[in-house]
Design brief:
Elements: E1 2-6, H1 14-24, H2 33-40, E2 45-52, E3 55-65, E4 68-76, H3 85-96, E5 101-104, H4 116-128, E6 138-140, E7 143-145
Length: 146
């Protein structure tokens, strides 16, 4: 069973999180784990490391506000991808935040984007896990999201 452990300043596997964050996100979406730890010191922002027993498999950050739980970041170790851990992470999200509406941004599909294939895979993953396309778009940090 996948478990979530809070990430703090003294987190033992911070180097694993740092390496994963650098690998998993394009530069325009990257936020350092140190910045995420700092953000988690305020109410409404949670930073979770994900483990399968003793094995680090990824991390997620979640912003909460009233009845919403917004999945800000989700990253799964490269060696663990396509093994169901992303879907298990979403199950953990639902367990940690019962009764809250789950929200995620999906990058807008754009044939000219350097990471178009990654965008398509992410979108397919979220839709396959019950999230819905809204047709509503926003832009921040130079990236368009639905």
């Amino acid at each position: 069973m996948l478990i979530a452990i809070p990430v703090t300043d003294q987190f033992q596997d911070i180097e694993k999180i740092e390496a994963l964050a650098a690998e998993a996100f394009p530069p325009e979406e990257y936020l350092s784990p140190a910045a995420m730890i700092q953000m988690s010191k305020s109410a409404g922002f949670d930073f979770w490391a994900l483990y399968d027993q003793e094995t680090f498999v990824g991390f997620m950050t979640v912003m909460t506000y009233k009845e919403l739980a917004y999945l800000f970041f989700l990253a799964i170790e490269k060696s663990c991808r396509s093994s169901g851990y992303g879907s298990k992470a979403l199950q953990v999200l639902r367990r940690i935040y019962p009764g809250k509406k789950q929200v995620v941004d999906m990058e807008k599909l754009d044939d000219s984007a350097a990471n178009q294939l990654q965008r398509e895979r992410r979108r397919s993953f979220y839709i396959g896990n019950g999230y819905k396309a809204t047709g509503q778009f926003l832009s921040y940090l130079g990236v368009d999201y639905e």
